[in-house]
Amino acid sequence: MTDVRLPLRAIIPFAAGSVGMGIWVTVPGIFLLYFLTDVLAVAPLVAGTALLLANVVDVVLHPWVGRLSDADRARGGHRLRLMFVGCVVVLVFLAMFAVPSGLRGTSAAVWVAVAYVAGNLLYSLYQVSYLATPSDLGIGYHERTRLMGFRSVVITVGVLLAGVVAPLLTGDDPGVGDYTRMAVVLGAATLVTMLAGIAGVARLNRAAPGAPVEAGHRGGLLVALRDRHFRTLATSYLLMAITMNLVLTAMPYFAEYEMGRPELTSALVAAFMGPAVLAIPPWVLVARRFGKQRSLLAAQAAFVAGSLVLALGVASTMPVLIGSVAVLGVAFAAMQLIPLSMLPDVIAASGPGGAGNAGSYTGLWTTAEATGGALGPYVFSACLAAGGFVASTAGEQITQSPGALAAVRLGFTLVPAGLMAVAIVMQRRYTLDTSAQRAPVGDLTAR
Description:
Order of helices and strands: HHHHHHHHHHHHHHHHH
Distance between the termini: 18 Å
Protein name: MFS transporter
Number of strands: 0
Mean pLDDT: 83
Structural class: mainly alpha
Radius of gyration: 21 Å
Strand content: under 5%
Shape: globular
Number of domains: 1
Number of helices: 17
Transmembrane segments: 12-35, 41-61, 82-102, 108-126, 147-170, 182-202, 236-255, 267-285, 375-394, 406-426
Keywords: Membrane, Transmembrane, Transmembrane helix
Largest sheet: none
CATH class: Mainly Alpha
């Protein structure tokens, strides 16, 4: 079976859907813990626990959403219905930051956590179906990388814009009303781009239809869990997701308490995401030349090196700090692109009927991503609590102890470096890449 080259008129709207996904991932990921501890006066460990529990519910639901998505495709030939329902997430996004004026402390944490649970469920309906698309299509090893390359560029742009624009919309000393205004603007952008993504998925399915799936297919979750290639890749990705969510969560704290300038949060996000956007096309070429596995290992090693340099904190110069953050961004680009282009390779190699289980594989994959989203902020909040960090309300001036300041610095640097080192150990156990690269399109048994 010959390889199919996907048309740009289908790829571009598909990739555009990632802008909204990037906003949903970024704004809660970077600002929600800070919103709780420094605007709503929630104690760090309480705030971290609230976000963790909200994400635990999300983790439990993702495999079910994957099976639901597979059933939707078997019944209707596509996954678009769930994606349309998922667009309702924009309303919950607004509610999450529109905390009633009488709520502060633990009660505010409960409000945010409940909204976060609802938002994560709706987002997963869109995300799981969206990310199953490359596995649904009749395309090969390199075309999967090309498709996810476009998607990775756009989602990184979305993360960059959200990370830079959100602080500009909230101002230097934001209150709840400022965050609500930010949620209205970014929520509108989320809705428009998610609808564009739905149109793109429909065009891709017409341009490169995959094999039909029989209704009533079962066993997808067990097939995925028994697949050692999937387990290895997903475990490494879980550690990467924890690390990246921790780093994003820690950025506002590092800017304020280590660098002494909270307005530098936007600069750190830009230094992280700007190089990431530029690095994705080169990573596509690198993965084509050297293979996905070796390219991903190189990116993980670069991340560890950059984190260790950042551990010097203010003892280093500003150009060195910004340059190290840029190295993290370049590595982040590979970690956005390569694992997601390896997942369809795993599904294609899972044997006959693999395409019918794509939603189950993707549901478990996004479970790992959601777990990373839960544990990343929690690990950093635990670092803050261990260092004696004191929560505050908007405008309140608090002098943090030396232990709290050290917790901010080390939680942003050495802890991520250690997690990524473990991810490297796990990633080295993945052995599918060489055979997947050589397999022709349509060969579902390449091992």
